Structures are given as structure tokens and as C-alpha cells.
Write a sequence for this structure.
């Protein structure tokens, strides 16, 4: 019996076999004979440590105009964050998820895109939209408690802020895929946080993007926390960038507070996608200096020392140090940028202090292309209520 | 095109054409609608699981990949949220995706994309970015399917503002409603009664009916004594019940709703006001099912015309049963006739 068993070949059932295909039993007891890796994982692996440029030799060769532009946007971005947070305290914004400390990612994401490209922001990424040129009043419409989106996404090529985590990622993939099918060299850049990488839509989006070789770049801002939950409760992966390898796309790891490094890595990924090289996953290591939102208390889940350590690695200061080292800006130039930021904040503050004017009748206008008979009835009911209210107040509330 | 006034045909099928064409099945009519829409508009893309090379598990998309290429009829990875989520992005870029959910219960992973984005994007952007997506969902039981293959999931969709929800019960409507769904600038959940996939009619793909707008019910059988309000897989049951009732001297009117959202209050109420009695019939569970809404609407609008409470004949409030027991769950002719008997006929005399 044992002799017979030894002579029985194990056959790969996935392909037809002839006599020449019958291998020695010893060769395929562990690995099916026809198996080989589908792609070489080596080139897809992220670097062992986050890519840095500012403060290194390589930064000496960076384009001065780019450095100055990044600096200006970082300073304006920081001021935007502090102003928006202040507006929540004054009751002018319903909520604001601050990106203080993450400005390098926000700004770089905006600046690497061409006008025809698309940005897919999450709720924490209004700064990226503003850095791309969107009026902050329009970017903040949702967070003001005004209408859900303050702009025409197609006109500015910025998707509506996505609140359900990672659900915007498949949208970016589908849009990039559609653009490629139409022959347009449009790239989509989609933003998500470390917590969002646990969502099923993150997985599905990356898988679809890789299978379709869609021109899309995924930027994960790993800011350490999903509201209160730290990354070690979120994943057991070596890094979030490593997840890319499982989908067959490159993963890049970058210092998320080094605006030049983030810009460089994202620009490479965008250029690769535009050239037909498919998607890239970029993990930017950064830190959420503020609480999740104005309604959160971060002292319940993290210590002050950790925050201070990250304050010492501040994206604005890193850039100012680089500009000083290169002799590209002096204190007067820095002061001039800060003054511009103050004017920008003052304009936002002033406009936010005017009450928004909303029209209740609009509630029914855009549910469908044409209101259903049922919605027309309900619109009439609301109109009658408003008329009655107006009559009792002697004013027109419509 | 159905006129706004109710149209009566008297039977389940429209009058035979002078030259009887080769009978077509509902499945073939759906496939033909997809083909014609794709031929007419290059923005129409079909995507889903097994829709390409195989032609779908029900062969609805048979031939589309061969005719239009893999980029127009795409086998996707096996992920329903990804299918609908990428369709959102495609629609944002100006395409008109038609996605196939392989079975009713397999569509559930896509529900977040549906409820949070597909249904809301037009409203979210105040009309700037509508999403013309058609979501085809084979639904309902009666095919001997094991668990997860026979759900009637329409109540979830009906309860989500921003979606249109339609379901054909005839071969002709399968073509016409799907063409209308694809042409619509709003997202449409197109529910396909899978046990009627093999139903036949003399409808000819060579002379397809005119595309009619979504939102109109139709009277399939005229009657004077009571109205059966139904849709999709339960229409043949109701027509059979009406035929049986005729033998007992009761003339039942049968209304095929066709569109659950928008709902055709006008046609429904005109019928109930004529007959004074109504029974709603569907496979979906009764508690919180579409019949609850329909009964409430009819009662609110036709109260003084009603001789009896509006009754419902629905699936039981249980998870869909194993195929060996499904006949006890599905509304059948006897259960419909029993409900008709309970419409307080003695009160009239």
C-alpha cells in the first residue's frame, strides 16, 4: 500500500495535464506546481522610514518658488484653522474638525493637482479645498449648518466633503476610471484618515483602483487618532502604506509635516497615475494637534507631552527653517505673509458674522429632478405653515 | 405611453398583435433594454459581478460585452459597495452607469453608498450634481432559492428619499421601465421579479414599446367590486385570483403599481373610489412593508368611499423561509381570495 501511494502523482487541477506535465510528487507537496507570484512585491514596498526632504541635503536643490508658495499656503492654512475654530466658539460654525498640525498634507494635496484634476476631501480637509482656490465661505457651508455643499463640484472639481468615512474613495476610483475611459488625462486625489483605512470602502476602493489601474492617488493622513482611538487599536499592519502591497500598488511613506516631502511624493504619484501607471497609496505621518472637533476633549485619551513633542515638529516652522537656511526669506518676508493671513482671516470672520439666508421651500426642490406628487403636497403644507406664521408675525418668512 | 387616465386591458397580456412575433421573456426584454440604451448613448455603462463573459447568472447581460467591449460591460471585483461606489464616481464624470446586484440579499453591502450618497447627492449639491444611476436588483422568491436568494427588499429602498423605485410585472414594462430608468437623471432602483424572468409575451424587440415616464400605475383588469393593489411578482397571483373571484360573482379590479416611488395616488385612489374596497398584495413582509404605506394612503384619501378597512396580503414577518416551505409564506390565490371575503360584504346589504 505504501508503495502505491508514493507512486500516485498529485495533479494540478487548474490546468489540463499531459504525461509531460506530471511532476515528481516531492516537488509539489508544498506549492502547487503552476504557482508563481502575480507581481513582484519588492518595488511596491514602502521605505523603512518616512521620506524627508526639509532639513536634508536634498532640500538645497528644491525650487525656491515652490518653497515660498508652500510656506505661504501653510501660514494661511494655519490661520484658517485657528479662525475656523474661533468661529465655532462664537456660534458661527456648527462644528469644525481642525487640521492644525496637518497643514503640510492639506496644502501639498491641493498644489500637486492640475486644474482638470479632482480632489476628494473628507470633512477634515476643507483646507485642501481652500488651498486649491475655493472660497472658504463655500468650503465651510456644511460645517456652518447651511446647505450641505456650498459649491458646484463639477465647476471646481472638488467632490462634496465626505462625512461617512472612506465612502468617497470608491467615488474617486470611479471618476478616475471614467476619465481614463473617455481618454482624458485626469487624476483623482482622494483623502482619508488612519481610522478610515479600517472601513470596508477603503479596501474595495483600493482593490478596484488596482484592478482597473485607475489614475487615482490615495492620501492617508495618519494623524494618530480616530477621534480617541489610537492606531494600534486600528491596525496590526507594519504601516498603513504596507497595505498597498496587498492590492498590487505601490505604497509610499512620507513625513506628513514636511510639506516639500509630501508635495514631492504626491507629485510623483500623480505623474505616475497620469502616465498610465495606476494608483498609489501614500501614508503621511502627521499629528492632529487639536481635538477631533471643538466638541471633543482630547485630554481624555492623550497626554500633553505627546502633543508638545509634535508641536516641536511643526510643519510651518519646518518650512520657515528651510527658507532661512537657504536664505530665501527674512523676518520681514515672514511678517508680510502673516499679515496676508490676518487679512484672509479677517475677511472670513467678517463674512461669517453675517447671518446665512436659507429658504425653507428649497427643501423640496432638489430631492428629484422633478418633485414627486407627494413632495409637492408636502411643499404646499410647509408653505401654508410659513404663511400662517408670517401672518401672525406680520412678516414674510418664506 | 400610458395615458394619465387608467388604462384597462382586461387580461394580463395586451391584445395580441396581428403578426405574432416570437415570444420574448422578461429576461430577454431587460437585456434588450440594456442593449438599446447602450447603443443609443455611449455614456451608458453596465457593471457588476459576472455580467461580462458569462452574461450574468440570469444571462440578462448576455452578449453585451461581446457587442460593446469590456469597458462598457464590465466584470467587477466581487464587492457590491465598490460597484455602486465606483458607479457614483463614474456618474460624477458624466457617465450613466447601470449596475447589477446579483441577488436582492447580496445588495446589502452597497446600502451605505445608496443611502448616504446615491440618494442624497442631487439634494446635497442643490441640483448641481445629479447621479443618473440605475441599480438593477433581482428580487423576490418562488424560484426555490436557498437563503439570501429570495428577499423582497423594496421597503428599504422605498424608505430612502432621493431614490425612485420601480418594478415591472410584464415583459413590455420590463423593457419600457428599464429604458425610462436609464434615461432618468435621478437614481432608480429597478427591481426585477426574478420568478417572472421566464414569463413570456408576444412583445417584439424589433418594435419595442415607447419609453414611458416613471410614476404611473396601470389597471390590468377592470372590475367593480374591489381593487387588488399589487406589483411585480404578485401581479399574476392577483390576476388569477380575480379570474377565480369572477366564478364566485365578484368583479375584482387589479392595479399594477409599477412604480413605488413616485407613487401614483391618482390611479390607485380613482380605482378604490370606484370599487369601495381594497386589498394590497405583495411578497415583502407586512410590518413596515410597502402595503402599510399604501393602505394608509388609501385610507387617508378614500375614507368616505371605503366599505371596509384596507386589508393586506403579504409575506409573514419572518426571515425568508427555506425553499421547501416558501409556498406557505408567499401570498397565493387562496390567501388573496380569503382577504377579499373579509371585506365586510354584509355591510352593503
Amino acid at each position: 500500500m505504501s508503495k502505491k501511494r508514493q507512486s500516485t502523482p498529485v495533479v494540478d487541477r487548474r490546468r489540463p495535464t499531459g504525461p509531460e506535465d506530471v511532476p515528481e510528487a516531492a516537488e509539489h507537496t508544498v506549492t502547487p506546481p503552476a504557482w508563481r507570484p502575480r507581481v513582484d512585491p519588492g518595488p511596491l514596498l514602502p521605505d523603512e522610514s518616512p521620506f524627508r526632504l526639509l532639513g536634508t541635503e536634498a532640500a538645497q536643490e528644491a525650487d525656491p518658488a515652490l518653497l515660498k508658495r508652500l510656506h505661504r499656503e501653510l501660514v494661511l492654512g494655519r490661520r484658517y484653522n485657528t479662525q475656523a475654530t474661533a468661529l465655532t466658539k462664537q456660534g458661527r460654525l456648527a462644528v469644525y474638525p481642525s487640521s492644525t498640525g496637518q497643514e503640510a498634507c492639506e496644502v501639498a494635496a491641493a498644489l500637486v493637482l492640475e486644474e482638470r484634476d479632482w480632489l476628494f476631501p473628507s470633512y477634515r480637509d476643507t483646507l485642501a479645498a481652500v488651498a486649491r482656490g475655493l472660497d472658504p465661505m463655500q468650503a465651510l457651508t456644511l460645517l456652518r449648518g447651511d446647505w450641505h455643499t456650498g459649491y458646484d463640484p463639477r465647476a471646481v472639481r472638488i467632490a462634496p466633503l465626505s462625512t461617512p468615512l472612506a465612502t468617497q474613495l470608491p467615488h474617486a476610483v470611479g471618476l478616475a476610471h471614467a476619465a481614463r475611459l473617455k481618454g482624458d488625462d485626469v487624476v483623482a486625489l482622494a483623502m482619508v484618515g488612519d481610522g478610515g483605512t479600517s472601513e470596508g470602502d477603503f479596501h474595495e476602493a483600493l482593490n478596484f483602483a488596482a484592478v482597473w489601474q485607475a489614475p487615482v492617488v490615495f492620501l492617508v493622513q495618519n494623524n494618530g487618532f480616530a477621534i480617541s482611538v489610537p492606531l494600534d487599536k486600528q491596525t496590526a499592519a507594519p504601516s498603513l502604506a504596507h497595505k498597498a502591497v496587498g492590492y498590487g500598488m505601490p505604497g509610499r511613506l512620507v513625513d506628513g509635516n514636511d510639506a516639500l516631502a509630501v508635495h514631492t511624493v504626491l507629485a510623483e504619484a500623480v505623474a505616475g497615475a497620469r502616465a498610465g501607471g495606476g494608483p498609489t497609496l501614500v501614508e503621511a505621518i502627521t499629528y492632529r494637534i487639536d481635538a477631533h472637533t471643538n466638541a471633543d476633549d482630547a485630554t481624555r485619551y492623550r497626554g500633553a507631552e505627546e502633543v508638545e513633542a509634535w508641536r516641536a515638529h511643526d510643519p510651518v516652522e519646518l518650512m520657515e527653517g528651510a527658507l532661512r537656511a537657504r536664505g530665501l526669506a527674512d523676518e520681514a518676508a515672514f511678517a508680510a505673509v502673516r499679515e496676508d493671513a490676518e487679512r484672509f482671516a479677517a475677511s472670513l470672520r467678517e463674512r461669517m458674522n453675517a447671518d446665512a439666508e436659507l429658504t425653507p421651500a428649497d427643501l423640496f426642490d432638489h430631492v428629484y429632478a422633478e418633485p414627486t406628487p407627494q413632495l409637492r403636497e408636502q411643499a404646499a403644507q410647509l408653505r401654508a405653515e410659513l404663511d400662517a406664521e408670517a401672518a401672525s408675525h406680520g412678516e414674510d418668512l418664506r | 405611453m400610458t395615458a394619465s387616465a387608467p388604462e384597462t386591458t382586461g387580461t394580463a397580456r395586451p391584445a395580441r398583435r396581428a403578426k405574432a412575433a416570437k415570444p420574448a421573456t422578461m429576461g430577454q426584454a431587460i437585456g434588450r433594454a440594456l442593449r438599446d440604451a447602450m447603443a443609443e448613448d455611449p455614456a451608458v455603462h453596465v457593471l457588476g459581478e459576472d455580467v461580462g463573459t458569462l452574461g450574468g447568472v440570469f444571462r440578462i447581460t448576455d452578449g453585451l460585452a461581446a457587442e460593446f467591449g469590456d469597458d462598457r460591460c464590465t466584470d467587477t471585483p466581487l464587492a457590491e459597495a465598490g460597484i455602486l461606489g465606483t458607479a457614483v464616481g463614474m456618474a460624477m464624470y458624466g457617465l450613466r452607469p447601470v449596475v447589477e446586484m446579483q441577488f436582492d440579499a447580496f445588495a446589502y453591502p452597497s446600502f451605505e453608498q445608496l443611502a448616504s450618497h446615491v440618494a442624497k447627492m442631487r439634494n446635497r449639491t442643490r441640483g448641481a450634481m445629479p447621479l443618473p444611476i440605475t441599480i438593477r436588483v433581482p428580487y423576490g422568491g418562488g424560484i426555490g432559492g436557498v437563503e439570501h436568494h429570495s428577499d423582497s427588499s423594496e421597503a428599504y429602498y422605498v424608505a430612502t428619499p432621493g431614490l425612485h423605485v420601480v418594478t415591472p410585472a410584464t415583459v413590455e414594462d420590463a423593457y419600457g421601465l428599464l429604458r425610462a430608468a436609464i434615461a432618468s437623471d435621478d437614481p432608480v432602483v429597478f427591481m426585477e421579479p426574478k420568478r417572472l424572468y421566464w414569463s413570456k409575451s408576444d412583445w417584439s424587440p424589433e418594435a419595442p414599446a415607447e419609453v414611458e415616464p416613471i410614476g404611473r400605475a396601470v389597471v390590468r383588469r377592470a372590475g367593480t367590486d374591489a381593487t387588488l393593489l399589487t406589483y411585480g411578482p404578485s401581479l399574476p397571483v392577483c390576476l388569477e385570483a380575480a379570474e377565480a373571484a369572477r366564478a364566485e360573482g365578484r368583479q375584482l379590479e387589479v392595479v399594477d403599481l409599477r412604480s413605488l416611488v413616485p407613487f401614483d395616488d391618482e390611479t390607485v385612489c380613482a380605482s378604490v373610489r370606484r370599487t369601495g374596497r381594497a386589498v394590497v398584495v405583495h411578497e415583502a413582509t407586512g410590518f413596515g412593508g410597502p402595503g402599510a404605506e399604501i393602505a394608509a394612503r388609501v385610507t387617508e384619501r378614500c375614507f368616505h368611499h371605503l366599505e371596509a378597512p384596507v386589508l393586506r396580503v403579504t409575506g409573514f414577518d419572518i426571515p425568508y423561509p427555506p425553499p421547501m416551505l416558501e409556498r406557505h409564506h408567499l401570498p397565493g390565490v387562496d390567501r388573496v381570495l380569503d382577504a377579499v371575503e373579509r371585506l365586510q360584504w354584509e355591510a352593503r346589504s
